[in-house]
């Protein structure tokens, strides 16, 4: 089965074609970062408008990449939530309408299921069952994955998501949106031993997270160091390093617990924060000690993209599921 996948839940327009036999045949991505940068974050209305502009040209582009006509597509998958409602509606209504015109089924996909399955697009994918750490701008969750659609929530953030915390900490030390990659870049030059930030909720049992305290810690530390309102470059790097280490350590401690609790020997990480190099290194060390294995997608497929939606949609369609003509998008949608 050949599925065209569409992702428009936030600030990336992604379109891809996934073939259940041949794998990924085309993949196009347009990032709106430049559109939102001057506002310091995503402006929902501008996001919707930009998706409208870019979506159909990207559909044409992936068909060209795959060297095929629309009649070679067996189904269309689109992100139906969670996300920005206007942005979701663009992808959903365009995708559903294309499927109707082409006379093929369509399916609304859960954005986080897309992220969760993204490591399956790689050459050596994990086999079910496994533990998944989903770390994006909107979610931080540990999930027991027994198969497609068989997801048990083991723990989640009680306040900010890990990516959200990265973005807010970045703002506090004067970095641009999107903050996560910028914090990581500065942290590389930072002295990791100068400050020790807390590892929230690691001293009590359970698999839930809380990142809002780290935000306050970042704010207080940076305020203490400002001279005439200005934070020196070295201080920014050292704070970035301390913040990154605190988040990474906390995630690693909970992942180890989740492996021990389930007895599983495979951990996958997915979502934008899974692109973080320090997190990958720290988790590689941890799984080695646990005699387990770590899986993740290439950086392009960690952040939002069309390939993960095409893949997840393909699995759902092959399981006999599809969506009807009344398009339903859900800005909030538990997986
Ligand atoms: O999965 P994603 O692209 O969008 C959502 O579904 O939210 O995740 C975006 C988040 C942002 O908060 C961004 O700052 C963070 O992922 N992120 C990173 C890195 N790359 C992206 N955080 C830390 N280190 C990175 N290298
Ligand atoms: Zn995402």
Automatic annotation (TrEMBL):
<dbReference type="GO" id="GO:0002949">
    <property type="term" value="P:tRNA threonylcarbamoyladenosine modification"/>
</dbReference>
<dbReference type="Pfam" id="PF00814">
    <property type="entry name" value="TsaD"/>
</dbReference>
<feature type="domain" description="Gcp-like">
    <location>
        <begin position="24"/>
        <end position="311"/>
    </location>
</feature>
<feature type="binding site">
    <location>
        <position position="111"/>
    </location>
    <ligand>
        <name>Fe cation</name>
    </ligand>
</feature>
<feature type="binding site">
    <location>
        <begin position="134"/>
        <end position="138"/>
    </location>
    <ligand>
        <name>substrate</name>
    </ligand>
</feature>
<dbReference type="GO" id="GO:0061711">
    <property type="term" value="F:tRNA N(6)-L-threonylcarbamoyladenine synthase activity"/>
</dbReference>
<keyword id="KW-0408">Iron</keyword>
<dbReference type="GO" id="GO:0005737">
    <property type="term" value="C:cytoplasm"/>
</dbReference>
<keyword id="KW-0819">tRNA processing</keyword>
<dbReference type="InterPro" id="IPR017860">
    <property type="entry name" value="Peptidase_M22_CS"/>
</dbReference>
<keyword id="KW-0012">Acyltransferase</keyword>
<dbReference type="GO" id="GO:0005506">
    <property type="term" value="F:iron ion binding"/>
</dbReference>
<dbReference type="InterPro" id="IPR043129">
    <property type="entry name" value="ATPase_NBD"/>
</dbReference>
<keyword id="KW-0963">Cytoplasm</keyword>
<dbReference type="InterPro" id="IPR017861">
    <property type="entry name" value="KAE1/TsaD"/>
</dbReference>
<feature type="binding site">
    <location>
        <position position="180"/>
    </location>
    <ligand>
        <name>substrate</name>
    </ligand>
</feature>
<comment type="function">
    <text>Required for the formation of a threonylcarbamoyl group on adenosine at position 37 (t(6)A37) in tRNAs that read codons beginning with adenine. Is involved in the transfer of the threonylcarbamoyl moiety of threonylcarbamoyl-AMP (TC-AMP) to the N6 group of A37, together with TsaE and TsaB. TsaD likely plays a direct catalytic role in this reaction.</text>
</comment>
<comment type="similarity">
    <text>Belongs to the KAE1 / TsaD family.</text>
</comment>
<dbReference type="InterPro" id="IPR000905">
    <property type="entry name" value="Gcp-like_dom"/>
</dbReference>
<feature type="binding site">
    <location>
        <position position="304"/>
    </location>
    <ligand>
        <name>Fe cation</name>
    </ligand>
</feature>
<keyword id="KW-0479">Metal-binding</keyword>
<keyword id="KW-0808">Transferase</keyword>
<feature type="binding site">
    <location>
        <position position="115"/>
    </location>
    <ligand>
        <name>Fe cation</name>
    </ligand>
</feature>
<dbReference type="InterPro" id="IPR022450">
    <property type="entry name" value="TsaD"/>
</dbReference>
<feature type="binding site">
    <location>
        <position position="167"/>
    </location>
    <ligand>
        <name>substrate</name>
    </ligand>
</feature>
<feature type="binding site">
    <location>
        <position position="276"/>
    </location>
    <ligand>
        <name>substrate</name>
    </ligand>
</feature>
<protein>
    <recommendedName>
        <fullName>tRNA N6-adenosine threonylcarbamoyltransferase</fullName>
        <ecNumber>2.3.1.234</ecNumber>
    </recommendedName>
</protein>
